[in-house]
Amino acid sequence: MYCRGIRGATTVERNEREEILAATIELLELLISRNDLRAEDVASAIFTMTDDLDAEFPAVAARMLGWSEVALMCMREIPVPGSLSGCIRILLHVNTERGASEMSHVYIRGAVNLRPTFNMH
Can you give the pTM of this predicted structure? Predict the structure, then answer.
Protein backbone atom coordinates (compact mmCIF):
# COMPACT_ATOMS: atom_id res chain seq x y z
CA MET A 1 0.00 0.00 0.00
CA TYR A 2 1.29 3.45 -0.95
CA CYS A 3 0.27 6.99 -0.12
CA ARG A 4 -0.20 8.92 -3.36
CA GLY A 5 -1.01 12.55 -4.02
CA ILE A 6 -3.81 13.54 -6.37
CA ARG A 7 -4.15 17.17 -7.44
CA GLY A 8 -7.09 19.15 -8.70
CA ALA A 9 -8.13 22.74 -9.26
CA THR A 10 -11.18 24.75 -10.25
CA THR A 11 -12.31 28.34 -10.27
CA VAL A 12 -15.32 30.36 -9.20
CA GLU A 13 -16.60 33.63 -10.61
CA ARG A 14 -17.80 35.09 -7.31
CA ASN A 15 -16.73 34.98 -3.69
CA GLU A 16 -19.98 33.42 -2.51
CA ARG A 17 -20.43 30.53 -0.10
CA GLU A 18 -22.74 28.55 -2.39
CA GLU A 19 -20.44 28.96 -5.39
CA ILE A 20 -17.35 27.88 -3.45
CA LEU A 21 -19.13 24.80 -2.10
CA ALA A 22 -20.65 23.85 -5.47
CA ALA A 23 -17.31 24.16 -7.29
CA THR A 24 -15.47 22.22 -4.60
CA ILE A 25 -18.07 19.44 -4.57
CA GLU A 26 -17.91 19.22 -8.37
CA LEU A 27 -14.11 18.90 -8.26
CA LEU A 28 -14.14 16.38 -5.41
CA GLU A 29 -16.73 14.23 -7.18
CA LEU A 30 -14.58 14.18 -10.33
CA LEU A 31 -11.47 13.28 -8.31
CA ILE A 32 -13.43 10.50 -6.59
CA SER A 33 -14.91 9.05 -9.79
CA ARG A 34 -11.77 9.28 -11.94
CA ASN A 35 -9.66 7.65 -9.24
CA ASP A 36 -12.27 5.17 -7.96
CA LEU A 37 -11.88 6.47 -4.40
CA ARG A 38 -13.77 5.69 -1.22
CA ALA A 39 -13.69 8.01 1.79
CA GLU A 40 -11.66 5.43 3.71
CA ASP A 41 -8.95 5.60 0.98
CA VAL A 42 -8.34 9.30 1.67
CA ALA A 43 -5.79 9.94 4.43
CA SER A 44 -6.00 13.72 4.25
CA ALA A 45 -6.85 16.64 2.01
CA ILE A 46 -5.35 20.09 1.74
CA PHE A 47 -7.51 22.82 0.23
CA THR A 48 -6.12 26.17 -0.85
CA MET A 49 -7.87 29.27 -2.12
CA THR A 50 -6.59 32.47 -3.63
CA ASP A 51 -6.68 35.69 -1.58
CA ASP A 52 -9.87 36.89 -3.24
CA LEU A 53 -11.92 33.99 -1.80
CA ASP A 54 -13.02 33.86 1.84
CA ALA A 55 -16.80 33.28 1.89
CA GLU A 56 -16.47 29.65 3.08
CA PHE A 57 -13.95 26.97 3.89
CA PRO A 58 -13.75 24.54 0.93
CA ALA A 59 -13.29 21.66 3.38
CA VAL A 60 -16.96 22.09 4.29
CA ALA A 61 -17.73 20.55 0.87
CA ALA A 62 -15.81 17.40 1.81
CA ARG A 63 -17.76 17.13 5.06
CA MET A 64 -20.98 17.50 3.03
CA LEU A 65 -19.85 14.45 1.00
CA GLY A 66 -19.49 12.43 4.20
CA TRP A 67 -15.76 12.74 4.80
CA SER A 68 -16.15 12.83 8.58
CA GLU A 69 -13.02 10.78 9.34
CA VAL A 70 -10.68 12.45 6.83
CA ALA A 71 -8.13 15.00 8.09
CA LEU A 72 -8.86 18.27 6.27
CA MET A 73 -6.97 21.57 6.19
CA CYS A 74 -7.64 24.86 4.43
CA MET A 75 -4.88 27.31 3.51
CA ARG A 76 -4.18 30.37 1.38
CA GLU A 77 -2.39 30.24 -1.94
CA ILE A 78 0.75 32.34 -2.23
CA PRO A 79 -0.44 35.62 -3.84
CA VAL A 80 1.92 35.61 -6.82
CA PRO A 81 1.29 38.69 -9.01
CA GLY A 82 -0.54 37.76 -12.20
CA SER A 83 -1.59 34.30 -10.99
CA LEU A 84 -5.05 32.84 -11.56
CA SER A 85 -7.69 34.41 -9.32
CA GLY A 86 -10.82 32.79 -7.90
CA CYS A 87 -8.97 29.48 -7.72
CA ILE A 88 -9.58 26.52 -5.39
CA ARG A 89 -6.94 23.81 -5.34
CA ILE A 90 -7.05 20.39 -3.69
CA LEU A 91 -4.29 17.95 -2.81
CA LEU A 92 -5.60 14.55 -1.74
CA HIS A 93 -3.36 12.02 0.00
CA VAL A 94 -4.78 8.59 -0.74
CA ASN A 95 -3.84 5.06 0.27
CA THR A 96 -3.73 2.84 -2.79
CA GLU A 97 -2.03 -0.08 -4.50
CA ARG A 98 -1.84 1.89 -7.75
CA GLY A 99 1.27 3.61 -9.03
CA ALA A 100 1.77 7.38 -9.17
CA SER A 101 1.33 7.39 -12.95
CA GLU A 102 -2.14 5.85 -12.51
CA MET A 103 -3.47 8.81 -10.49
CA SER A 104 -5.86 11.05 -12.41
CA HIS A 105 -5.40 14.74 -11.65
CA VAL A 106 -8.37 16.97 -12.49
CA TYR A 107 -8.32 20.61 -13.62
CA ILE A 108 -11.64 22.19 -14.60
CA ARG A 109 -13.25 25.54 -15.36
CA GLY A 110 -10.70 28.35 -15.49
CA ALA A 111 -8.05 26.10 -13.95
CA VAL A 112 -7.63 24.01 -17.12
CA ASN A 113 -4.80 26.32 -18.14
CA LEU A 114 -2.80 25.37 -15.04
CA ARG A 115 -2.14 21.88 -16.41
CA PRO A 116 -3.07 21.79 -20.11
CA THR A 117 -1.58 18.31 -20.64
CA PHE A 118 -4.02 16.56 -18.26
CA ASN A 119 -7.32 15.08 -19.42
CA MET A 120 -9.83 17.79 -18.54
CA HIS A 121 -13.57 17.78 -17.82
Answer: 0.92
**Residues 11 and 87 sit within 8 Å (Cβ to Cβ):** yes
Which runs of E-coded beta strand occur in the chain?
Answer: 2-11, 42-49, 71-76, 87-96, 106-107
The model's pLDDT over 48-101, given as tens digits with 9 standing for 90+, comes to 999 999 999 999 999 999 999 999 999 999 999 999 999 999 999 999 999 999
Active-site annotation, residues: 7, 63, 74, 77, 89, 107, 115
- Domains, the chain, ordered by start: 2-114 (3.30.1330.40)
